[in-house]
Amino acid sequence: MAPKTMKRMTALPVMGLLALTLAACGDPGSSGTTAPEDVTGEGCEPIAGDTLVALEDDKQLQASENVLPVFHSDAADDAALAAVNAVSAVLTTDTLIELNKSVDVDRVTPADAAEGFLIESGAAEGLSGGSGELIVGHADYSESETLANVYAGALEAAGFEVELQAVGNREAYLTALRDGQFQVMPEYAASLTEFLNPDAGPDTAPVASSDIAETMAMLEPWATEAGLTVGEPSEAQDTNAYAVTTAFAEEHGISTLSEFAEKCSGKASILGGPAECPDRPYCQLGLEETYGIQFGQFKKLDIGTLSKQALVQGEITVGTVTSTDGSLAEGVTVEPEPQPEES
């Protein structure tokens, strides 16, 4: 039986991922047409195309945004933890891309996508020992809702009665989770670590790293102090990713950010990404410091739709997306949106 869906608790806007809050790219003045004088190298001009591929972050620039379950500690009994940990054991970035494709591209409902995943992966097989009612929360974006449905299906298979509830953004839902208004939801390791950091402030450097074991070592005691229990992290990570068209990757023989640095750093290369880009460690600054990548231009675009549209239309060389974007699934084409006619 599918989990019941409750009315949403709050409709506050969501910035769910560290990738979205820390993903900045570029200099406020770098969106013009003239390459900065300190940029060296020829770079590579954009190549239009209707399929995208993310360049591998082979030097692990991004923090460990592994998907994991977080509970109100009173609800984290052995049966409940075993159920959601069974999901973590089989959830990878590739399977999460396919789940997001199902929902965002193929327009399958999150509940049906979750059911199909649980059947195919076998994650819900052999679960038992659960009793009582649990409310699974999710933030106001499709990936979170889909993951909540996956957790709900596993918990139902273990014997729990499960309801789903939309719970808004992290500031709202972690308070509600601590208060026991719901019992469990999907989270992201690095983002949750930064949020629970007791020493966090406006100028605090990120403490989470690309090493999930190191991140978990910081997260777990802070979660316990907050009355929360975290389950096992999955292999699936939702971080900033840097996409190019498949045509571009094939033309230049590029599949990693290191290869891009070697072959395409320079004046002709154009980066697209969020407007708040200048000094952020997981975007343009990090790309230059970690990989030595320089861009001749920066275009201010959102981290999803606009960046993907600019890629397929050949307006930018590299676009900032999320690593689990359904458009990165094999065989998915991104149709260019019609341009307005000039009057």
Count the E strands.
11
Envelope shape = globular
Helix coverage percent: 25-40%
CATH superfamily descriptor of the largest domain = Dipeptide-binding Protein, Domain 3
The CATH architecture of the largest domain can be given as: Roll
Overall structural class, as computed from helix and strand content, comes to alpha/beta
Strand content: 15-25%
Rg, nearest Å? 21 Å
Strand order of the largest sheet: 2-8-11-9-10
Helix count equals: 12
Order of helices and strands: EHEEHHHEHEHEHHEEHHEHEHE
Mean pLDDT: 88
Walkthrough of the structure:
- This protein has 343 residues and is of the alpha/beta class.
- The protein folds into 2 domains: 18-61 and 239-328, D-Maltodextrin-Binding Protein, domain 2, CATH 3.40.190.120; 64-230, Dipeptide-binding Protein, Domain 3 (Dipeptide-binding Protein, domain 3, Roll), CATH 3.10.105.
- The chain is 35% helix and 17% strand.
- Strands 2-8-11-9-10 form a 5-stranded mixed beta sheet, sandwiched between helices.
- Helix 5 (142-157) links the parallel strand 4 (133-138) and strand 5.
- The longest helix is centred in the middle third of the chain and has 16 residues, at 142-157.
- The protein starts with a strand and ends in a 21-residue tail after the last strand.
Please give the structural blueprint.
Blueprint: E1 4-5, H1 18-22, E2 52-55, E3 67-72, H2 78-88, H3 93-105, H4 110-121, E4 133-138, H5 142-157, E5 161-166, H6 170-178, E6 184-188, H7 189-196, H8 212-225, E7 228-230, E8 240-245, H9 246-252, H10 257-264, E9 266-273, H11 284-291, E10 295-300, H12 305-312, E11 318-322
Parallel strand pairs: 1-5, 4-5, 9-10, 9-11
Antiparallel strand pairs: 2-8, 3-6, 3-7, 8-11
Helix pairs in contact: 2-5, 3-4, 4-5, 7-8
